[in-house]
């Protein structure tokens, strides 16, 4: 028996089945860089409309993590798509390079910022930040990000710092910036003020104390051995108590427990709950009165009995919890501060920058004690003087420094603020014009802005942009537009570092010199830094004009960068910096747990890239619903890898079967109906893909792609054309026609995967049997050709798919019943229902169904019966062609069918 394998047109391609991404990708990336593909594409797109995705700056500290990879890859999808679909879309990466983490990194090397010259310490910080930026650049390059990493912005760049200071000058000019003593979040571990965006909440155990303060004078009742009861979870603030606050409309009672010789004041509706906690029994109500009756009642400090304070009214007081009377320490809370201020008192905050009691506490037991350690001392002292009614431990949510992970406190300190009340209405109006994805997040940003009255912009650190301000000999703040602009002119010429090395007079106009002025030592908040990025980019790149098209960041940035950016932008010139905000969730491990180095469940994106390939990581990003939290782990990546292999193998099949195809010849005339149907489905697929990319629904792209590859191609069109491709003569018209269809399929698949599988699409393009190719697939625009088949043809062939599906069910039954082994052995007889009679008009039906013979006739006992009618499957008793494996009633020769014999004769 002859072997006809070598006569079949089973072709090969240099596009390998085994991807080997980890080995190929670095070489592809090297060529992109050497050939300057990104800038080549921008030049090709130079006359096209701009589309600007503005990159939010990650912090320049440490290697990139999987959250960075998700963020940058999502942005890359957008930039690559836009650059191929009619836009010029530059992508300028940025970095946040000032602030505490960098100072901390330098401190860990043994450098004490308080013991070296400021400019020396700042130079060390600058060098470290730049080193971190370069490290992260390499990480992003390994992911295949489409950019020029020599054109970036850093918040330490001189022109960036100048843009920032010019905004500060505008704040001064508009009267929006001021310095005041106010309680703010203070981090003892970082020794600096923090913004709300730098706070995270964690559950902690705290001592909950019910404390009695002896009443010394009142007009509300006849005084005996009476006490006001307050409740606190911060006993360390009791030494700084200045007032007790009562709610004006709250009903209070004076009660006498059976087992105590003292009487106590408490909110009436809290009597039962407090009695249960402290152990009071059979409480007798002596008198009931409103909070207004308690006004000006005097009490002795629970720790310092000679210190007399008073009860005042506070609108913030409720009777929902506690005792209805609020311990008030003006230096350690917002409501407390405002209440103390309303009484013409100075807020008392005897805690230093590191969180220790200072000498102003005037208590030797507490001086130098860390605030949290003072809880025990306070509890002991209260017990000794019989003012501690009850202490128990409770678990509650408490604010922490998001960098050090240590608790923060409210502390009244002198800080710089931007007053927002005048500009909030204008900002809210701008937000109404901003599109958001998800849509509901517009209201989130709006509510976060509306709730802000001011913005703390000062930090007590060294590595950052200085706040321009001076103090006269009386330590009074001196700041105005003349001084600020004078200083900016000097810093623009000499650099920001000079502020930290020269005396005040160096920066002052002559009229202010030689008056013993001193400089401000605070720096600007890093959120103020990054919030100026839109202004800095517009100033540096004259082509870029705000508002930019898209900001895409994690959903925590509504409180952070989105917030600071729109505040700064609206203050600058009244407009929002962005047209659309897109947010993604956080990335968790495979079981949905938050990633943590201490737990050991982190996933390193560079390890994935160097093990599985960056394209696998990129495909994972596309597979997720990024608007929600995502999961990643070995099993998930394994599933993504399987999806990748199916896509790759499908494209490999197409490439292999185009090896001898001349795409410059036109074979599109007189295509068969099945070809037209396939091209029609291709155009519909292409349209859906375009819509998904334009709406940033990358998981829809992923789903559409997988469905199309597996169902439209592998399971249908590619399956039946194998016979045509392998068996027909090389230049057989039918073979050339299906190759034409494959050529069009290939290009749409390339366009589809280009933004996501950036490296694989390049490998495909370089494997194409085509002349005059450009240097890279990423220099191409999308192909615009569409194929729309007549509606009746589409309807007919959609019925064919239903028909084919039911025939396959019949074949499966026949295989199970041992009637046939392979489908090509089957002879099919079908009694069609009226709805499917037009199936008879389809030519080459046996080839499409991959069976030996199909006939339409009455059927007795069917193998299968369904919506198409009755189907009988039997074994074709004819002879097998040893070349094409078809079963025929008669062969041309002993082992060849007429078609194969003809092909062989013409070889």
Automatic annotation (TrEMBL):
Motif ('HIGH' region): 58-68
Assembly and binders: Monomer.
Record-linked HAMAP family: Ile_tRNA_synth_type1
Annotated positions binding Zn(2+): 881, 884, 897, 900
Superkingdom in the source lineage: Bacteria
UniProt motif ('KMSKS' region) ranges: 594-598
The encoding gene: ileS
Pfam families per record: Anticodon_1, tRNA-synt_1
Record-given protein name: Isoleucine--tRNA ligase
Cofactor note: Binds 1 zinc ion per subunit.
Membership in a protein family: Belongs to the class-I aminoacyl-tRNA synthetase family. IleS type 1 subfamily.
MF annotations from Gene Ontology: aminoacyl-tRNA deacylase activity; ATP binding; isoleucine-tRNA ligase activity; tRNA binding; zinc ion binding
Residues binding L-isoleucyl-5'-AMP: 553
Domain notes per entry: IleRS has two distinct active sites: one for aminoacylation and one for editing. The misactivated valine is translocated from the active site to the editing site, which sterically excludes the correctly activated isoleucine. The single editing site contains two valyl binding pockets, one specific for each substrate (Val-AMP or Val-tRNA(Ile)).
Cofactor: Zn(2+)
Positions with a binding annotation for ATP: 597
GO cellular component: cytosol
Domain Methionyl/Valyl/Leucyl/Isoleucyl-tRNA synthetase anticodon-binding: 679-829
GO biological process: isoleucyl-tRNA aminoacylation
């Amino acid at each position: 028996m002859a072997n006809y394998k070598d006569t079949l047109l089973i072709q090969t391609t240099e596009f390998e089945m085994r991807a080997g991404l980890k080995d190929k990708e670095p070489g592809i990336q090297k060529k992109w860089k050497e050939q300057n593909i990104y800038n080549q594409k921008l030049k090709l797109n130079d006359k096209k409309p701009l589309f600007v995705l503005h990159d939010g700056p990650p912090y320049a500290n440490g290697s990139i993590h999987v959250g960075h990879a998700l963020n940058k890859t999502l942005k890359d999808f957008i930039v690559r798509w836009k650059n191929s679909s009619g836009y010029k879309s530059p992508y300028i990466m940025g970095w946040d390079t000032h602030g505490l983490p960098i100072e901390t990194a330098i401190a860990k090397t043994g450098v004490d910022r308080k013991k070296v010259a400021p400019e020396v310490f700042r130079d060390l910080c600058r060098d470290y930040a730049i080193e971190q930026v370069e490290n992260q650049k390499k990480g992003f390059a390994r992911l295949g990000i489409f950019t020029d990493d020599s054109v970036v912005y850093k918040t330490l760049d001189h022109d960036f710092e100048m843009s920032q200071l010019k905004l500060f000058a505008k704040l001064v000019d508009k009267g929006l910036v001021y310095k005041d003593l106010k309680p703010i979040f203070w981090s003892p571990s970082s020794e600096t003020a923090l913004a709300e965006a730098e706070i995270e909440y964690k559950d902690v155990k705290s001592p909950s104390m019910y404390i009695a303060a002896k009443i010394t004078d009142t007009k509300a009742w006849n005084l005996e051995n009476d006490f006001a009861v307050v409740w606190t979870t911060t006993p360390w603030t009791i030494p700084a108590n200045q007032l007790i606050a009562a709610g004006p409309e709250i009903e209070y009672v004076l009660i006498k427990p059976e087992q105590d010789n003292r009487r106590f004041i408490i909110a009436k509706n809290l009597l039962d709950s407090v009695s249960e906690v402290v152990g009071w029994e059979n409480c007798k109500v002596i008198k009931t009165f409103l909070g207004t009756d308690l006004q000006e009642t005097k009490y002795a400090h629970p720790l310092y009995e000679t210190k007399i304070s008073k009860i005042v009214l506070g609108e913030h007081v409720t009777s929902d919890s506690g005792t209805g009377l609020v311990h008030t320490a003006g230096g350690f809370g917002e409501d407390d501060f405002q209440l103390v201020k309303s009484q013409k008192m100075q807020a008392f905050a005897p805690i230093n920058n590191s969180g220790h009691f200072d000498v102003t506490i005037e208590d030797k037991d507490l001086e130098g004690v860390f605030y949290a350690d003072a809880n025990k001392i306070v509890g002991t002292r209260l017990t000794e003087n019989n003012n501690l009614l009850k202490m128990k431990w409770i678990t509650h949510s408490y604010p922490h420094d998001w960098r050090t992970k240590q608790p923060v406190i409210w502390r009244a300190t002198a800080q710089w603020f931007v007053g927002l009340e005048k500009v909030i209405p204008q900002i809210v109006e701008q937000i109404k014009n901003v599109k958001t994805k998800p849509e509901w997040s517009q209201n989130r940003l709006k509510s976060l802005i509306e709730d802000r009255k001011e913005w703390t912009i000062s930090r007590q650190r060294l590595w950052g942009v200085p706040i321009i301000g001076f103090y006269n000999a009386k330590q009074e703040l001196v700041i105005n537009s003349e001084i600020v602009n004078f200083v900016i002119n000097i810093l623009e010429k000499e650099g920001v570092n000079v502020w930290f090395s020269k005396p005040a007079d160096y920066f002052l106009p002559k009229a202010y010199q030689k008056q013993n002025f001193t400089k401000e030592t605070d720096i600007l908040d890093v959120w103020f830094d990054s919030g100026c990025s839109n202004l800095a980019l517009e100033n540096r790149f004259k082509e870029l004009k705000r508002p930019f098209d898209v900001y895409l960041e994690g959903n925590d940035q509504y409180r952070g960068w989105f917030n600071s950016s729109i505040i700064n932008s609206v203050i600058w010139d009244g407009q929002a910096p962005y047209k659309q905000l897109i947010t993604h969730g956080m990335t968790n491990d495979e079981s949905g747990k938050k990633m943590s180095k201490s737990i050991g469940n982190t996933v390193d994106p560079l390890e994935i890239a160097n093990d599985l390939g960056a394209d696998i990581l990129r495909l994972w990003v596309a597979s997720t619903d990024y608007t929600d939290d995502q999961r990643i782990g070995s099993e998930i990546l394994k599933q993504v890898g399987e999806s990748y292999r199916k896509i790759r193998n499908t494209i490999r099949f197409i490439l292999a079967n185009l090896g001898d195809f001349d795409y410059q010849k036109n074979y599109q005339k007189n295509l068969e109906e099945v070809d037209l149907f396939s091209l029609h489905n291709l155009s519909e697929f292409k349209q859906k893909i375009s819509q998904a990319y334009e709406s940033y629904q990358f998981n829809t792209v992923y789903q559409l792609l997988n469905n199309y590859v597996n169902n439209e191609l592998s399971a249908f069109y590619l399956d039946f054309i194998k016979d045509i491709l392998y068996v027909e003569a090389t230049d057989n018209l039918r073979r050339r026609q299906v190759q034409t269809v494959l050529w069009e399929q290939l290009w749409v698949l390339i366009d589809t995967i280009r933004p996501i599988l950036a490296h694989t699409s390049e490998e495909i393009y370089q494997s194409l049997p085509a002349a005059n190719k450009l240097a890279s697939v990423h220099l191409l625009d999308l192909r615009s050709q569409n194929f729309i088949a007549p509606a009746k043809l589409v309807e007919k062939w959609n019925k064919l798919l239903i028909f084919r599906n039911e025939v396959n069910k019949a074949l499966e039954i026949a295989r199970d019943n041992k009637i046939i082994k392979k489908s090509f052995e089957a002879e099919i007889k079908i009694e069609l229902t009226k709805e499917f009679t037009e199936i008879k008009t389809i030519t080459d039906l046996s080839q499409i169904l991959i069976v030996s013979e199909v006939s339409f006739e009455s059927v007795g006992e069917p193998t299968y019966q369904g919506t198409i009618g009755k189907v009988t499957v039997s074994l074709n008793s004819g002879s097998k062609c040893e070349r094409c494996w078809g079963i025929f009633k008669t062969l041309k020769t002993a082992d060849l069918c007429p078609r194969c014999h003809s092909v062989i004769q013409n070889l």
